[in-house]
Sequence to fold (786 residues):
Amino acid sequence: MSDDALLVIRWREGEGCRIDAASPTVLRMLGETAESEPCLQALLHPLDRDCFLTEIARARRCGHDRARHADHRVVDRDGRVSWWQTVTVLHPQPDGGLRAVSHAFDITGLRGCGPPQPADALPETAQPEHAQPEHAMPCAERALLQAMLDSIPDLIFFKDLDSVFVGCNRAFAAFLGRSEEEIVGHSDFDLVPRDLAQAFRADDREALRVGVPRRIVESVRLPDGREALLETIKTPYRGPSGELLGLAAVSRDVTEARSTEETLRTLSLAVAQSPVAVVITDAMGKVAYVNARFTAMTGREASAVHDLESFALCFAETGSDEFREMWRVLSGGETWQGELPARRSDGGLYWASVTIAPVREADGRITNIIGTADDVTERRQAEEQMRRAQKMQAVGVLAGGIAHDFNNILTAILGYSHLALDSLPEGSEVRDDVAQVTIAAERAKGLVQQLLTFSRKEKAGREVVDLRRIVEEALHLIHPTVPLDVTIRFVCDDGDMAVFAAPTQIHQVVVNLCKNAVDAIGDDPKGGGMPRLIVVTLAHATVGAPKELARARLNPGRYLCLTVSDTGCGMDAALIERIFEPFFTTKAVDKGTGLGLAAVHGIVADHGGVIDVVSAPGEGSSFSIYLPRHDPELGLRAIKRGRGRILLVGDERTMLGMAGRLLRMQGFQVVASAGSRRGLALFTIAPERFDLVVLEQGPAGQAWRLLTLARAFAAASPGIPILVCTSPDSELEGAAVEAAGVTRILRTPVVPDQFVTLARQLVEERLAQKAGRNAETTTGRGPRSA
Fold:
């Protein structure tokens, strides 16, 4: 702004109001030089001079630091009159005097007065302009202000001290659905519902009372029924002399903005508390946000991740195939996703599922990049355990099928071999040859039994046994076969070591593991580098929460842990993956069958246990078997607490009544159903309530219907024991019965003692499995006729 446009006067109170300094334009109007001492009163029009000074005196009395003057006239040295709009800033002095600075604008043109007129052209009786109310505004100036207000999209309105509208802009009128003429001169009670008008009136009074701007956020319902959230700033406004005139308000409809803010807040909280790590960068890869889960998962502080590359390096090494592939995909503006092995800051290993994707605007322009990472270690472990279980199950099915077919062939070989031996004379060379065939067939029969054990199709009788005694007997049996330079040490905890198991099968487990340890020590290429030692440990183990082992998961429960450790050659990860497969062996062709550890796996799984292996090349191996401990009071508690519950399903009410009475007399809880549909419905609602299902086939019953029903029960609760009572000529046998989930078959007529004993055995096995909370429940048991 040039000097000519400035109208500034610094003056002091006193005679004539002497001017200390003024802008050049003012000095030219006074006809004075900068060195002279002009007076303010000489510049003011005689008719406006007293009003100008009165306004200053009123502002001082009110304690204001400035005075806003009504439009007034000034007269230059040639007698020409101009109109000014002036604000005077007051600076009271310690001695009681006053110094002031007046800032003015020449508004002669805005008032429509044309160029400055000589002072004598005005009649002496002319009334000064400010004889109007001091807050009045000339028409031209008011029109300009209204046009400016109407151009503003916010809602603007003015009220007097009685909360009557004295003006508004076009946006406010449109918001109310009325014209300006329908608003001005009316109050809120004329325009909005009474309760809302009362709230507005209270807000107005509070704003006038405090005398400062007041922000209000309020939800209003308009006359047309619309709901709106308004943010309003109500400010008291004053006249040129500082007197309070009313309220000026600016209101904004923030309904959509608040909804957007709430959505953004929800999204922000969701990202901040997300169970996956989230990193957001700008389009150039500079990090803008890192949530707390990232630090919890990786162990790295958010400050350590400053760009997209440092985020990626938390999961992939520079130069790796995954790293190069990731950048190749991201460079093309596409989404990259993968699962990577990662390392925490403390050195711990885990698997991370990482996704990095561009964030695009509607026009396709990339504005940000978002990266997420989730710890999927548990899922991958579960998938790996499931894959192993399915693999072992498939191998077991194959081995069981082969064993059954081979068993039939061996039966013929052994039978005809014995017939041939009986027909050959003693001392015959051919007799010796046939005898060798018989011996070989007997060995093959032993292999078949191991295959059946692995596939869990050969069920041995179980009882409560002392695991310590079985291990000691097995070690005593194997000791003579162990080389003299190999030491076997047995360490056992004190206390009860009872398990519900088949003694011969547990005996086989110990023998097979010890033989495997002896072979591993014999295969040790270091020779005498380490003590040739086998340590067999038997200890109690209590698991309070799911525990991840090297190869399996151990569910909460009380276990006995049998561990066989050796100082042999050890195994790598690839070898550990296959050691339980049938016929897999690292020994020479004539040294092993590859069925020893496979049989161990089958026996342990069938007993509701878990087997784990820890080994490394050159560091020996350790096989740990966890078997559920037997609770000696389990059966008593089952009866007292009603945990032994049996479901009877059949068509013959006489049979159901007899069976129900027999079982109840033994302390079992019995639920009987004379219809298969009703029985299945009762079971499906809460299958965990039942420990045994007994299905009775009537005289006219068809085998396929009974098998279909059994399959439905097995599907509703995998592993539930199913006892079928059927006639002697029933066709229930073979693979179809096994596939239907039938556990045992009892031929009629039923002997009461036999029926109750068999039911008790199946219930106790089921309760033992529940007590151990075994992760691997028995899903296929070969049926046997009793």
